[in-house]
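Consider a protein example.
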Amino acid sequence: MSLKDAPNGLQEAAGLAGRSRRDFLRAATGASVGRTLFPLAPGTARGAARKTKTVVVTFGGGARDQETFMPEGHANIPHLLHELIPRSTFFTQVVNRGILGHYVANASLATGAYETFNNFASVPPPTPTVFEYFRKDLNRPAADVWVVAPSAGFQRIGQSSHRRYGAGWGANVVLPKRLLAAALPMGSIAEYERLLHDNYETPLYAPEDAGGDAEVHRIAEMLNLSVSDFVAHAGTLTSPDELSVYIARRLMRQYAPSLIWITLHDIDIAHAGAFSLYVEAIRRCDRLCAELWNTTQTEPEYAGKTMMLILPDFGRDSDEDAGGNGFQHHRTGDALSRTTWMAALGAGIRENIFVDRPAETIDLTPTLGALLGFATPFVRGKPLEELF
């Protein structure tokens, strides 16, 4: 059941979740509430923000407010709470009305339309992606747009099957686990078994490799991937998210892409049912988001001209819903599993502002289009006017 078709009580619960998040965060950060819309003046974004670099960070499965924004969860998100959110325009109520599967939900984020294909199918989105809109409308080269994906199930997210876009206009998609596996010496893969685990939710899922070994080796050579360098810099050798951020920072230093999209996924270890690992992953995600932000502030190609947007793809089930499994899954489709948030910060974004009105996950792509000056003709979402 989608939230759009749900009873009013469920929609009211989504609003209540957003308001509770706002109240707890206002007390913790002293942020003000932005109640007035600031419409985009004609032509403002186009041209004015052309040189802005953009980093989008999504993370799979989300984290419940009990373990994050509520007082008992504050210790798990110190960087978001004290460094990133106070610098951001923070949307307290971002609703996902679509399918709560990670690949299809992230594809919906990237296309600005709720996709309905099988979450476990190795297919491209049918709707054009933000990467294609960006490259085609602004005539940007392939090296200017990259996606760092968490698993093989995301390998088709960079390019749609739409006849007006598709081939030739997509993003480079990096699968860090496959890059690492290709770079490891023969016989040493067993040492990295947990790091290379591909999917927490369906461990038997093994989609067909769309690019094959040739594509893996092409990107590995482009990045000059060093296993020893990763080992030296990783906070832990059991975290795929550490590997993804390592790759993202290497891309930023080597190619300085104008648009880079990173999906973190360690939090989805919750499917294994280990609460301690779930909390550990939340803390790691919090730290890695701060590390990425700090990279944008220190790398010469990004410093002072980068905006960063951080949002979960959706939430997780509540403890009170008999149809779910609490933190472990996102099966019920209730308000808490659908209602999440977004922080936008950086170049041109107002700081320390809360936006309390409902927004949707599919608003991300049209917002990027309006901010960066490219057309998004097939989106179903709307630009978030508070960011202009």
Notes: Residues 275-298 form the longest helix (24 residues). The two ends are 34 Å apart (CA to CA). The chain has a mean pLDDT of 82.
